[in-house]
């Protein structure tokens, strides 16, 4: 039997401002810059990783800037052990994720990157559907 050929799916985001996007993904979400392409001394493409998960970013050239808003109708869901721990981590890093809620038996922590791409960090839970973080904290107290 052959070993599996597919290893990983990596979201590739075209971004308007690489500096803003790197600030968000590295300083905000905690990703690490592991590869970069600098054709004119400035990062034009990069590969970022956090705990075995990767994303790629590439800055639009003037000639290929999109006319529409990027990311409309598109979400990337990162499955994790503890989405609520990431909610706390992101807030400590000065990001403003939406209030977590339970959907499909998962805690969902979501936010948008500087270009409007929707990112969701999700972890399994037995908390009832549609429970919000605020309501859950009140019940725990």
Structural account:
The chain is α/β, with parallel strands linked by helices. The protein has two domains: 9-62, 2,3-Dihydroxybiphenyl 1,2-Dioxygenase, domain 1 (Roll), CATH 3.10.180; 73-141, Signal recognition particle alu RNA binding heterodimer, srp9/1 (2-Layer Sandwich). 21% of the residues lie in helices and 32% in strands. The protein has a four-stranded mixed beta sheet with strand order 1-4-3-2, covered by helices on one side. A four-stranded mixed beta sheet has the order 5-8-7-6, with helices on one face. The model has no long low-confidence stretch (mean pLDDT 93).
Looking at this protein, list some descriptive labels:
single chain, 141 residues, alpha/beta, 2,3-Dihydroxybiphenyl 1,2-Dioxygenase, domain 1, Signal recognition particle alu RNA binding heterodimer, srp9/1, 2 domains, 4-stranded mixed sheet, 3 helices, 21% helix
